[in-house]
Write a structure and sequence with these properties.
Strand content: 5-15%
Shape: globular
Radius of gyration: 28 Å
Helix content: 40-55%
Structural class: alpha/beta
Length: 594
Amino acid sequence: MNPRQQPIREAVRIDPANACLLRGNQAIALTPKAFSVLCYLSENPTRLVTKEELLDAVWPGRCVTDGVLKACIREIRKALGDEPKAPRFIETLHRRGYRLIGDLSGDAKPPALTTPCPSQRTPLIGRDVVLERLRAYLDRALAGQRQIVFISGEAGIGKTAVVDAFVEQASNGALLVGRGQCIEHHSEGEAYLPVLEAVSEICRQAPDAEVMTLLGRYAPSWLAQMPWLSDAAGRETPQRETLALTRERMLREMVELLETVTAKVPLLLVLEDLHWSDYSTLDLVSMLARRRGAARLLLLITYRPVEVILADHPLKSIKQELDVHGHCEDLPLNYLSASDVGIYLEKRFPDHAFPAALAAFIHQRTEGNPLFMLNVIDYLVAQGAIISDNGVWTLQSAIVDLDPGVPESLRQMIERQIERYSLQEQYVLEAASIAGTEFSSTTVAAALEASVPEIEACLARLVRRGQLVRDRGVEEWPDNTLSASYTFAHALYENVLYHRQSAARRMRFHRRIGLCLERGYGLRAAEIASELALHFEQGREYAKAVHYLRQAAASAAARYANREAIDYLTRTLALPSNASTRYDLTSLRGDFLR
């Protein structure tokens, strides 16, 4: 069971400094808006907080429907393990609002923070080229050539951060900006939800209600869907029953409205997370992209390609068709480099005495995913590995001694990503994590006692989705076995997949993989002695583990890597001693000295 789904009986408290919930020392992450909703409820305990009050407090000046608020409440309840029908924390008052009935202050006082956490509000790192391309697209749009740009990347890659930075740079009195957000639904989403939100924001920006006038003239069907705009402007809302509403009319009206508006003032329209979009919004995007007339419009769309593939979302086919006809631009976001991580550390910790290897360590742990990087750095601060000593930030231990664990908030996010895959795919990924960050189809098949073609077909599907696994080509073993080779996109994925399995299951998989590698390498098994030792050690085949640990120690000693040789021999001595191992200190010392 996901930890966020477990009933929470321990004291829970809000941690405003780190924007999360705390259960003991364990952090439970929430999205920013959900955390803001929870904070507002906690500031008004035991009293009814109406939906309108929450919307005004958390989304000031923006049009947001009840569906967005409900999604936030659902996320909070999931994090708290709260049941709507028997609430212990948040009570729903039907059609009115919500009331916080539980104590989120915690029974015990939070631990004193000996190390204040530095601000994370630093300039965007490693996205200069992306921002330059966006400025070029905006210049084309200002010249009357409409631009439809898809910004893509996995969760945590920084799509929203890029959009935020670009909007901040581009915003001026001569440019209207409208942003709409798609939200994840477990059923049919509200039609045109992000567009309604964006249009409402545009109407509030336009001087003298000019856009409101155009909205009533060119898109009365849309105005009927947004009575809050008419009420705010003192206008009479068009009655839906008097309008002949059809899909075609709704699409035509909005396209004509946007083109009329852009004839007067340029428009930057942002629709985020379109992998969760309703079909109607996609129809509008397609129609806007196909229009031939001039329009000073830049439409930015963010989405996660993996989500589109997993859900077989219609965005996939729509975007492919727009690509074929040259109606859109692609702007995929890449991972940060190790030097980017170093720049981030410099900006977040301006006075520090970190070793140069810290940036490389963090990059290796996160593969340059910005969200993963932030989580790991926050984790090091929270664990006291990074502290401020007389105003200078220092690392308290050697790089090799840093805790390689995964922060709980990040683990939960990765778990949610993994759970979107089929059970068969999850099973294959878990077996692959036993083999290591780099693995082969042959070892995974051995762990699962399955056929290699079946495993390769499954891994090929995972590679095409481009999120968890990458293809490394084909490798040949000493026994002439040809095996497809793969690697995890992030070491963190491997870590989470490894630890979500039971100890007994990991033991079986380690043993099977060890035996498979031993057969494949035969007389050349000494070449991978350390890898074989690990698998047999974890698989509790201690006699074989001792054999390969001694080979690994001898190999290290031959290279004058004495510390590594000693480490291997120390591991040998730590293994359980029984009749099957038959080793002693004298023989081990002899191995090392030869």
